[in-house]
Each structure stands twice: as structure tokens, then as C-alpha cells.
Amino acid sequence: MLDVGEGISFELLPGKEKELLGPAESWQRLVVRDRGRKVKDLPESFYMSYTRIEASPATYWMIEEYTGGAHCCSRYHFFSKGIGKKPLRYLGSTEGSEGDTPYFDDPFIFQRGQIYFEDVDRRFAYFHTSYANSELFFPCFYHLTPSRLAVVCRQFKARYLKEAAEIDKSIEEEVASRDDRPRAILSAKHEDFSDILAQRIVKRTILYLYAREDTKAWQTLERDVRKYYKTTAGLKRIKKEIADTLRETPY
């Protein structure tokens, strides 16, 4: 039993499941209690660390969960407790990310009296490329309040536009070094990107979509596919898949 302050405790117990990643003794259950009362029984997984933040009018606890797998995933659970005798509240968890990317140097952002948490959206990590070759990781922002955890990426529009501008430069550099012009944005089997330029064009498109610059996103995608590839084969598919993937969870 670990006392983490203000009457809150974490109880780490052995997991019950048998055929899971790692040795059985390392699979864990984590019970969160408020003055002995169970608040949340977190799913069986690997629990790595916790962070406590005092920010009036509440104190927050973040618990890091490693869900297993060679490439994935870190997930973060948040709790809050208001001043006085208010009970501990479970706010929810992030979608699951890759915590080793450059985005994760300092995840908490404090501005204008508000607390934000920066995570990594990895939903496109296998989008027409292997994980090892993927550049399709994007910052994702959550707003912490005493009563909820909410995705608020649109509040960080400037960040996405800045990254889109950086990708624009890399696109120009890649075009300048090219020796040939591939037939299409996807390979002959219509599965993988035909080259790194294709992936970067798609990355810029998604960054514009995060910034809610939808018209610019689709126009620049279509423009560059027509400009840098012999045909537009695969373009319609790419557009649909991007839109479908973004609809799966908030962004």
C-alpha cells in the first residue's frame, strides 16, 4: 500500500490473468483508495510511476500504465481531489501513446491558470508504413480540470501550424534531392507509401486537419500528389482513410 497524500493510497496487487505479456508476477492490478474507500480498480497491466500536482482548487494524480507490446503503449490515468473533504474523482485516461517520441520531454503545460497534458497521438503509426519507418506521430493535448479530462487539440492550433511549416521545408528538400517521379503516392501493391515524400505530404495534411485548416489540408494534398507523382492513383483512398481514422476518437 502506497500513501500518496491527502488520504489517497495506491494498492498494487498481483494480476490474475495467466497468458499475458511478461512473467505472471509482473502483471499487476492497481486499486486506488480514498481514505480506505475504493475509488477505482484499474485494469490488469504494468504500472510504472505516478505524478502528483497541486494546483488549486484541486490536487491531481497521474498514473502511468504500460499496456505491453514491442511498440506500444503508454496510457495515463488521472484523478483529482478538490479542497476540503471532497472525494477523490477518477477523470479518465488518455487513448494510449508512444511515450518515447520527442514530444514527451515535458508533458505538463501550465498557461493562463490552466493545466494541460501533452501526449502523442499514434493512430497513424502504421498508416501505409512500418512502425520503424513511420513519421506519423502527432502531439495531442488534454485539459485537466477538477471534474474532467478532455481532448482540446484545437486550442493548440499554432503548434500544429508550426510543425506543418517545418514539414513543408522538408518536402521541398526531398523534392530537390529526387532522381525520379514515382507513378503514385502508394506503391504498386497500393499498401505502402511509394517514398518518404509521400509520407511527409500526408503528415502535413494531418497537421493541417488538427489545426482545423481542413480546406488547406485537402487542397495541398491534392496539389502535391498531382505535382510530384505521375498519376493520382491512391489519392481518393488516402483521403478517405485519413478522415475515417480521425473520426475514431476525438482530436
Kindly describe this structure.
This protein has 251 residues and is of the alpha+beta class. It has 2 domains: 1-93, no CATH class; 158-247, no CATH class. 25% of the residues lie in helices and 33% in strands. The protein has helices at 157-176, 196-210, 214-228, 235-247, and strands at 2-5, 8-14, 28-34, 37-55, 58-66, 74-82, 89-93, 108-111, 114-121, 138-144, 149-151. A hairpin with a 2-residue loop joins β3 and β4. α1 runs antiparallel to α2 (196-210) and α2 (196-210) packs antiparallel against α3. The chain is elongated, with a radius of gyration of 21 Å. 27% of the residues are buried.
Q: Quickly count the helices.
A: 4
Which residues sit in consecutive blocks of at least 5 with pLDDT less than 50?
none
Helix proportion: 25-40%
Q: Give the domain tally.
A: 2
Largest sheet: 7 strands, antiparallel
Structural class: alpha+beta
Reading the helices and strands in chain order gives EEEEEEEEEEEHHHH
The total beta strand count reads 11
Shape: elongated
How many angstroms does the end-to-end distance come to?
36 Å
Percentage of residues in DSSP E strands = 25-35%
Biggest sheet, spatial arrangement of strands = 1-2-3-4-5-6-7
